[in-house]
Write a structure and sequence with these properties.
The protein has five helices and no strands. The protein is mainly α. The chain has a single domain, classed as 434 Repressor (Amino-terminal Domain) (Orthogonal Bundle), CATH 1.10.260. The radius of gyration is 16 Å and the shape is globular.
């Protein structure tokens, strides 16, 4: 698997590829939990990605996700001119 592919996979796609629940991936990327070394080794083998690279990708995706979650939300204006 290539980095860009990993970075754009949905949680459900990662679940299907690795056997890990999408909620586990969600917690990894939201910063709630971190996978164990044993788990990372399993994902590394399953995805065909060297362990060190996979760790870097997970950290990068976590950082990106957390940054996105910190941004203020601007709700769409729903009021109509009358």
């Amino acid at each position: 698997m290539k980095k860009q592919e990993f970075m754009t996979k949905s949680l459900r796609e990662l679940e299907a590829l690795t056997g890990a629940s999408y909620t586990h991936w969600m917690r990894y990327f939201n910063g709630g939990n971190s996978p164990t070394l044993k788990t990372l080794e399993k994902y590394s083998d399953t995805l065909g990605v060297p362990l060190g690279e996979l760790c870097e990708w997970i950290v990068e995706r976590r950082d990106t996700t957390q940054e996105r979650l910190k941004r203020p939300h601007h709700p769409a204006e729903t009021a109509q001119a009358g």
